[in-house]
TrEMBL record:
GO terms for molecular function: metal ion binding; metalloendopeptidase activity. Gene3D superfamilies: Metalloproteases ('zincins'), catalytic domain (3.30.2010.10). Keywords: Hydrolase, Metal-binding, Metalloprotease, Protease, Zinc. It comes from the Eukaryota. GO terms for biological process: proteolysis. This is Peptidase family M48-domain-containing protein. Residues 48-247 form the Peptidase M48 domain. Pfam families: Peptidase_M48 (PF01435). Binds 1 zinc ion per subunit. Its cofactor is Zn(2+).
């Protein structure tokens, strides 16, 4: 988990009653989404889209978590998402176009990214932060603006959303255990297609990320970067790629791998990597 992600979560957990209040209405949302998924998508299982099911089980074994339901929906926009709450019906939705675009190993990395959201329960805390920073909620619950400002929630919420994605990229890397696989998923989502997949270069994309980092250090670059990121829901792909590349060489990541054991193969997805526990 990214350090800032941990810090923001801890700050919200210190507010008495907040987590319980948010969790109280999650089951209603969860039931609504469940009915939609079960009616309009394909539920993955041991006898339905078996390769995706095996990939899910392998990723869950590495991240030490129970497998959620996975649904595949017909959609031309490559995407995956989750409610990011470990409730009674945790789920992940994969778009059909995402499956077409990714290799089996890359698709597993995407699944692991969504598992990261579930494991961290980002849905709970982003919802909680949104509640605290809304004027209506502060009036209704007697939470004066001084509370939100004391925690820096207005300013921190956007940055937190971005670093939450970086935490989940780390989950993807722990499962893939190959930074090229995870960066390749970002590269394909930015500018990939089934037709040009063989011509995409992770190495060149990482060079591009470094070029962006240098360009954004100028006064104008910093201004443009902050303007773009103010409304973003995800970090820029080049930033995510650079963060992954840096963390893949860090003592923290390498230490996790050294403590790992051989993965009990849940199905042939790629050459079996060691478990990181």
């Amino acid at each position: 988990q990214h350090p800032f992600d941990q810090e923001a979560t801890a700050a919200l957990k210190r507010l008495p009653g907040l987590e319980a209040a948010v969790r109280s209405f999650i089951p209603i949302v969860e039931d609504t989404i469940y009915l939609d998924n079960i009616a309009n998508a394909v539920l993955v299982g041991p006898h339905q889209l078996q390769s995706i099911h095996k990939s899910l089980l392998q990723a869950c074994a590495i991240l030490d978590m129970q497998p959620p339901e996975v649904y595949v929906r017909q959609n031309p926009t490559p995407n995956a998402y989750t409610l990011a709450v470990s409730g009674k019906k945790p789920f992940i939705v994969l778009h059909s176009s995402l499956i077409d675009l990714m290799s089996p190993a890359e698709l597993q990395a995407v699944i692991a990214h969504e598992l990261g959201h579930l494991k961290c329960e980002h849905g709970i805390w982003i919802t909680a932060a949104n509640v605290l920073t809304s004027g209506l909620a502060r009036s209704a619950f007697g939470l004066g603006s001084v509370v939100a400002e004391a925690l820096g929630l207005r300013r921190l919420l956007q940055r937190w959303r971005l670093t939450a994605e970086l935490s989940c990229d780390r989950a993807a890397l722990l499962v893939a255990q190959d930074v090229n696989v995870v960066v390749s998923t970002l590269l394909k989502l930015v500018g990939g297609s089934v037709r040009n997949a063989d011509e995409l270069s992770v190495h060149e994309f990482l060079k591009q990320a470094k070029a962006y980092d240098l360009a954004s250090r100028t006064r104008l670059g910093r201004l443009l970067r902050s303007t773009v990121m103010a409304e973003a829901t995800h970090p820029l792909p080049v930033i995510r790629a650079q963060e992954l590349d840096t963390w893949s060489r860090s003592p923290q990541y390498l230490g996790v791998l050294k403590r790992g054991a051989e993965l009990v193969d849940a199905g042939p997805v790629a050459p079996p990597p060691p478990v990181a526990r």
